[in-house]
Amino acid sequence: MRAVDEVIAHRLNSDVPLVGEVARYIISAGGKRLRPALLLLVSGALGLTSPHRHTLAAVVEFIHTATLLHDDVVDESTLRRGRQTANEVFGNATSVLVGDFLYSRAFQMMVDVGQMRVMEVLADATNVIAEGEVLQLMNMHDADLDEAAYLRVIRSKTAKLFEASARLAPILAGADSATEQRCADYGQALGTAFQVIDDVLDYEGQADELGKNLGDDLREGKMTLPVIWALKLGNREEQAMIRHAIEQGDVTHLDTIANVIRRTGALDRAREAAELEAQRAIAVVSGLPQNTYQQGLLQLAADLLTRRT
Q1: Spatial separation of the C-alpha atoms in residues 222 and 232, rounded to whole Å
Q2: Backbone phi, then psi, for 79, in 5-degree steps?
């Protein structure tokens, strides 16, 4: 990861000082670096030592950071990772344009690796992510959204980059197609579980622990899995209140809605869905060579279920 951070620092250089300033602002905020770590863990499990793994780990972090910059503008967010969002500090126009810079820099770095298959996977992933963003936008304030439609969004918007990160290592290692698919399936399951837990924490955690404003999803009219289950399990009055909040983006009764979500067992149902995805990840990665890195992949999936931040 230190090697990846060195690549990130080097490739953030730009002749336009504001570009580097904004990019460093959001990347220096920290974050979990799950996608680069995933790529490195899979590389280790497969015995891959090529320095290209560090380049591609930086690439997936740049793509992820670009999506965050754009997301915060679209969602009008003001807080991320415990501090002001880049759009709040530098403005929407700057955030969007620096996000574009990170996307284009990521593609420059892909060329350095010199493998068309790598470019194909990452190009497809960025396209699917963009489609997921638009699909989520279309679904805003739709209180009739069901679990299948919700999963379609998060598998495009979030899990796709996890999937790509896990797929790149076997491609670099020259592994067979079955191993590549096994790694990709692990990444998709892990990314899906991660997003479901993230949506649970929007109603379960504390803002100072999560580093974001609780209730943002409700304000934005996003139907997440805890809300979908609360609408199924609540009484008529509770259902009407939640439906109004989603359709109008009204967070006036956020505390009451959060209590309903907890009381009805909606959070437990959502966590069960995340657990199924984590178990799917564990099952597929069990087929990889058994070594310290493979054990790390198993632990990563298990740890998601106890995540609190």
Answers
A1: 16
A2: -140, 130
How far the first Cα of the chain sits from its last, in Å, is 21
CATH superfamily assigned to domain 2-304: Farnesyl Diphosphate Synthase (1.10.600.10)
Give the number of residues written for the chain.
309
SS3 177: helix
The Cα 243–Cα 232 span in angstroms is 11
291 contacts 187 by C-beta, under 8 angstroms:
no
**pLDDT tens-place string over residues 184-232:** 999 999 999 999 999 998 888 654 444 456 677 888 899 999 999 999 9
For residue 138, what are its two tokens? 């279309």
Tens digit of each residue's pLDDT (9 = 90 or more) over 143-161: 999 999 999 999 999 999 9
How far, rounded to the nearest angstrom, does the alpha carbon of residue 226 sit from its chain's CA centroid?
Answer: 18
* pLDDT, mean of residues 84-91: 91
Which of the two residues, 180 and 77, has the higher pLDDT score? 180
Tens digit of pLDDT for each residue in 280-305? 999 999 999 999 999 999 999 999 87
24 neighbors 98 (Cβ within 8 angstroms): no
- The two tokens of residue 28 are 């220096």
Q: What's the number of CA atoms in the CB half-sphere (13 Å) around residue 126?
A: 24
Q: Which two tokens stand for residue 146?
A: 């069901």
Question: Which residues does 238 contact at the CB level (< 8 Å), separation at least 6?
Answer: 230, 260, 264
Sign of CA dihedral 187, 191, 192, 193: positive
Instruction: Give the dihedral of Cα atoms 36, 41, 43, 44; nearest 10 deg.
Output: 140
Q: Looking at the whole model, is its pTM more than 0.85?
A: yes
